[in-house]
User: Fold these one by one.
Assistant:
Number 1:
Amino acid sequence: MTQNQGEGAKVSAGKRISRGDFLKAGSAGVAGAVVLGATGCGGGGGGSGSSGGKNQFVLSFGPDDSGTLKTLVSKFNKQNKGKYKVKWRQMQADTGQYFDQLRTQFQAQSGDIDLIGGDVIWPAQFAANGWIIDLSDRFPESERKKFLDGPIQSNTYNGKIYGVPWYTDAGMLYYRKDLLQKSGFNSPPKTWDELKSMAKKVKQDSGTKFGFVFQGAQYEGGVVDGVEYIASNSGSVLAPSDSKKVTIDSANSVDGLKTEHSMVADGVSPKAVSTYTEQETQTAFLNGDAVFARNWPYMYALISGSKIKPDQVSVAPLPAGSGSGGKSVAGLGGWNFYISAFSQKQDAAYAFVKFATAPEQQKFRALKGSFLPTLKSLYKDKEIINNIPVIKLAPEALSNQVPRPISPYYSDMSLKMQEQFNASVKGATTPQKAANTLQSELKQIIKQGSGA
Amino acid sequence: MATATAGKGQSGGNTLNQVLFYVFLIGFVLVSLFPLLWVFKMSIITKTELFASPPTILPQNPTDSSYTTIFSDPSFQHALLNSTIIAGVTTVVCLFFGSIAAYAIARLRFRLKSSVMTLILAISFFPAVAIIAPLFKEFAQIGLINTYWSVIIADTVFALPLTVWLLVAFFKELPKDLEEAAKVDGATTIQAFQKVIVPLAAPGVFTTAILTFIFAWNEFLFATTFLFDDSTQPVTVVIPNFASQYVTNYGAQAGAAVVVTIPLVIMVLIFQRRIVSGLTAGAVKG
Amino acid sequence: MTTSSADKKRSRGFLKEELGNPERRTAYYMVLPSLVIILIVALIPIVSSVWLSLHQATIVQTGAFVGLQNYITVFQDSSFLSGFKNTLIFTVVSVFFEFIIGLAIALAINRAFRGRGLVRAAVLVPWAFPTVISAAMWRLMFQDQVGIINYVANTLGLINQPILSNNTLLLIAAILVDVWKTTPFMALLLLAGLQTIPGDVYEAARVDGANILQRFFQITLPLLKPTILVAVLFRTLDSYRVFDLFWVLSNRQLESLSTYVYEGVRITQLQFATGNAAAVFIFVTAFLLALFFIKVLGMQTSTEE
């Protein structure tokens, strides 16, 4: 660069600077940029190319505030010095965007990424396309037994296992202990109907702005909440026994959507809940504007430092549906490890999976970053229980996890569910109509999928 | 030209006109700047205030914590440099190829002109979102993925149509006699282009340069697809990552947005002068 | 590439005439680099898109040739139709306001006054603000609990429901943000065009007694027409492909043509072919739009001398 600029300067100095030299300066810039570009290429390419170092491989994962992944990476690299080296490629924080990026790379059959730290909803689609490998041999039944059932189920497609659960997430009910007590309620609601009547009473007594906030926006999180309402009424989107059978228009499923819609219709939730993601839910609850909130465990840590105090809040499993088959469920979230089918370093990658999901590392991330472990044994660990209050407060939630539909066409289905669930929440359509529309749309997707 | 209106002062209502003019101007500037001021406010308030309901109008407890966050993040500083390189090189490459092509189209006679023009323009009709996956494949095959060049090339292709069209329009407006005179003096086509046209077209060229630079500076889709780590990622990719899965750090994002906008404002201030003085000054010098 | 294949069809005389003449030969050399870049980078993906749109295809495999079936499917898809409608409204309304306001600003700041440089720089700030960021910030301003705009609009009684939950309000919000963001672009282009109009033309008109309106309609507008058409065409084509503004502002909720394409080719498993068909549809309709500008509105193309 310097050399080229020098040349450019010489030209201008010699001739009295005129705008005519603009182009010359321009071409010097181009030449300079070649040098710069080459450096960028060398730096980036050399580091990330998995074909580079011997047994160096790339792990993809989003940003990590807690800093725990960084610790894990350097610990692994130290332990395996000379043998394996993992490099973490930071992807977009937005899960949807991260998915889109991965998809583009897989489509190009790129072997750049060896190991994926990925969302629980991805494995079926990745597996059906042959983008991630079957881990059944590496991760045998005897090992799987040690993990929570929900996450294992979400990694299983066509009877084979494609991912190893890393950490998990479960929908929970946050409630204002103080306000409930003030209105004479000593325990959290057991059913959605109870929740509604409690919310109304507390709103009256304490003047709280909103009764209940949850994620009703048209996005992936809206699907989780919708599925929770449906499953709590013992309904389902796809038949549990046959993932090719659509059951969203069954009476139980429709009841679930009706319950969700009634939150807005009965004035328990604000109209704007149809635009709420986790962020807005958290804003409302932490501002002290809501009696109840449905959110993931992460919100508990944010209570200190907000307008409400930890002793004003408690956590419970989500309420059950009011019908006969009503049960408390928790939408399953969380992240797993998948190994790319295009990777040349699959063994090295699996070594990291084993390392990161071992009790010691899971415990470390649970204590440092409040990530919920996926190993059953860790839920008996005193230190962890004391450190993550939600485990103590709502242990049932983690044994009642319900996954979203498991289908190679999940992303197609999700788009439709996002649209219809949201329309039903905001009253643009009735729950029954939304269910009927979805029934035919999902059927069409399955038909098209098996035809193609 | 219009300069005369304000300069000469011909009527009694002039003072009133002046006042109205400035009121209009100030109102307009405020509307343009309000969102930026609001974003600036977002960047200096605490998280609690950021999510206060109803929102506060003036900051209650100014804090620099957002700026501490972004400047203690090495990937952000890297991103500033990356953005500058990507946008700068894209601008230079675009103007280089664009002005050459535009000159030929504006000034020279050849038969396939309209086909060439149509082809260049046609590219800007295609939705960028649709070509990303095949483009990724193409770039991966020649090893461009995760280099500046992947984004520079893609940005150039999508900025080139506008560059060429603008420059053609500007070049055509220029008086022909100067160039003819240069040719009579024995200058070649290329020399005539360099010595006469380019300086004369300076206002247009600088306008085009600014627009191209900002286009490349703001580009997100290509950058997020083709670039993998903070050695190459620009600010548009890094800023949204002041977030975790469920929580967005709006304060840090706002601060980062302010930081990346300021250099552009400064650049525009500098280049504006060129645009203003451009035409007349260029003609006199040439 | 194309030049040579096009040449083959014509007679040798044409080749000789075009390349034998030094000026013309230079002209071809000068346009060649731009063409080569564009062809290499964009043509292959575009051709593959057209091809895929005519086949049964998922992201991993391409099946049988199905003719225009994908296009028919697209036109029966309500998401596509609402995306099409939103895009049309968005394009027409936002470009209209951008042009009117942009022209007013360009005329206003095309003169000497104190603080001119600052005003010009300030005007460009919205345009310089990265869309992915500004859209997220605007979303926060529109948000129902903490959003200043939602708060003000509610207090004034302008709206009685949350902006972000209603697709019509969202579309209006998107138009507002786009007008805020791209009016400066328009103004700058028009300003540059205004400055190519020689001052003596105005002097002459003033001597002839033309008033300010006459001068505007008889001198400024006609002389500015080429710039106006270029600016409006490019803004129109840009708005027509709107993607990141809708995507971020509405949190993937508001559909446009481009978001429909994105969903098809980058998210779903099964809408891959229809996504490509929609992409080709955008391409073709945009092309027709440009033809309209050139043929009907008389936009200057390069061919005239």
Note: Chain A is about 50% helix and 15% strand.
Number 2:
Amino acid sequence: MKVLKIENNNGKFLDEKNAFHSIDKLTKGNLMWIVERVLDGTAEIEEYDESKLANQAHQVIYKSLYDNLSSLGARKDEFVDKSARLYLEHYERYMDDTSQGAGEVEDEANSTGEP
Amino acid sequence: MKKIDLHIHTVATVSDSAFEFSLEVFKNYVSQSQIDAVAITNHNHFDLSQFREIQDALSAKVFPGIEIDLPSGHLLLISDDSDLAGFEAKCLSVSQRITTANDSITTADLRAIFGDLSEYLLIPHYEKAPAVRGNDFTDLEQYFLAGEVNSAKKFMRLMKDSDKLCPVLFSDSRMKVDIGGWPTRQTFIDCGEISLAAIKACLGDKNKVFLSREEGNRLFQVLDNGMHISTGLNVLLGERSSGKTYTLERLHERFDKVKYIEQFALVQSSDEEDEKGFNTDVQRTRSLFVDKYLAGLREIVEDVAKVDIEKDDKDIEKFVATLMKAADEADRRDSFSKVKLFDEAEYVIGDNEGLEQLIGSVIHVIENLEFRPNIERHVNRDSLKALAIELIETLWDKSLQNQKRSFVNRLVTDVKELLRRRTSATHVDHVNLFDIAMNKRKVSRFREIVQELRKEKEIFSETVQGFRIVATKGAFRNATEMGKAIKTRAALSDAFRVYRDPYACLQMLKGNDRIDEADMHRFFVKISYRILNKDGAEVSGGERSEFRLLQAIKDSQRFDVLLLDEPESSFDNKFLNSDVNGIIRSIADEMPVVVVTHNNNVGASIRPDYVLYARKTLEEGEVSYRVFTGYPTDRRLVCVDGTDIANHEVLLDTLEAGVEAYEDRRSVYEGIKD
């Protein structure tokens, strides 16, 4: 899905409710949502083209977002690899820690004998 | 029956601490301890003139010998006295080779010096340090008839083990001016005339070797006055202040490795103290397990502690705000802010950790020898090499690229800094979206792991002497519990207020100066221990003492003798009768045990092998302590000075508060019997 596009000479971004807004209305929450979409590989970003953007403000914002998000998109696989390995060994161990000592129990009561 | 001590020192060598030899002491030792044969065995040394002097002075048979340092341990080599000059010459060769405490001779040297070793009696340090081991032992094994031990416990253990050498117990004493008491470690052999050949014949047959003159291996001597105790279970009786503790302490001094469980050692003053002591004991022994279990969480906490989501959030906010502001000012830009580099973001420098790991893995596959056939069945080795080369080249490229980018970044930053100083235009504060997104992942995984860890679950269980130690993980219920995790005095109420959110809790802990970073991981999950009794219920105060007694007794197996002072001071009769007695009895099968008691449940029901009765008497203003000994079935107990006492009277006096009280009590029980 397109998260950043140029329409009628205006830069637009997509929000989590699937609605487009003018790029100068972007908040940090919107940006974080877009970042997540770039990293999960569902986002498409329309290329920056200064000539298509009439408004200078839109040019500044669009270019900055485009540069940042494309460089993030280029590292998407690295991110997926890295986050999948995050604490994985410990994670799996703690999720599956069925009484590890219990298997090695030795009933020493018997070794000393009963009266 | 002959009493022999074939390990005696009379010269201080480099292997000894200094001492002054006394022939008089030696003579008294031999006569008072009624020893029939001794061997002079100095460290790597034989002094012929001194030997002759000793031989003339002693009533006992004296053998020439030497204690030799082999690489692994010490060996006694004892000769007959037919060629003393020849033996002296051979020993001199040993002395010349061993001039410092660190020297030794090999078994080959030994053969070269002494020739046919079967002419001698060779006794290695066996269950005694430093023991002859490994090749030294196997090289000489054919000449060994007996091995030296240093306690009655080890003597008995070897006696019962048909695969082991015949044990011998010798004093290994220095015959010095200030000898203290007479040594009590000797061995008895069933032989007539004493000669080296006769001794060797006896040591070759375990049925002819004993710890005592008349009682075989049932008794052994413990005090230099000749007092013997059983190699099994001894009960030491006596009224209050009759010298029981005095006797125990004398016994304590006579053994090298003694487990002494003192009276009341296992009970504490109050329930609270008792519980605390008990928990400390248990927790200490189990703390290694907790450390291991939480090691992973510790790594995670250390990593997540570096993450600052709040700052990340602010950075994004700042980026968006400055970006909007810069856009707003776009049409009013001056020549400085119009420069392209003014708005330029820095290159992101990625780390190559993943690639480096991948290269490591590929190299591992290429170099593995054990599974090479399996690997080559599936993957061509040359392709793997090509892959490794490609990946390594990629790594070089990436590293080079990173270096270049770093260089450009430094340059861009410098230029931007210069431009910023000259313009009033807003500068966009760029952010590293990759790191920020990764930090978010770290925090969410951390929350997930901690929430899982907080679910109540048994993680460890061990059964010890019928009690079950169970470790459970779960959540802390309050700040006080959290504090107990590492016994800190740091205030934890703020951290506990946000305990539900592990990340928020971590932030609070980070802000607490009194908490060491290395301990932070301990505040997320509560690991608690419970000791359950045989019925699976939590142990009571009494059971806690029982558990500690059982642990202490179990621990005693590493020692040469167990001395137990009034176990009844801590326990009720039912437990004594059912458990403690049984455990003490089974330990007494393995080692000598001396139990001091007033309690008939211990004293009589435990079925001792030997009874000791201590009595203090005042004779002509002098206090003297006597100990009467005998088997439980003996009518009279006898003291080493020849005096005796009725056994029946002793038992009733000490265990039943006297004949009268016993008869009284018996009639009461008879009266109420249904």
Note: The domain at 2-221 of chain B is CATH 3.20.20.140 (TIM Barrel).
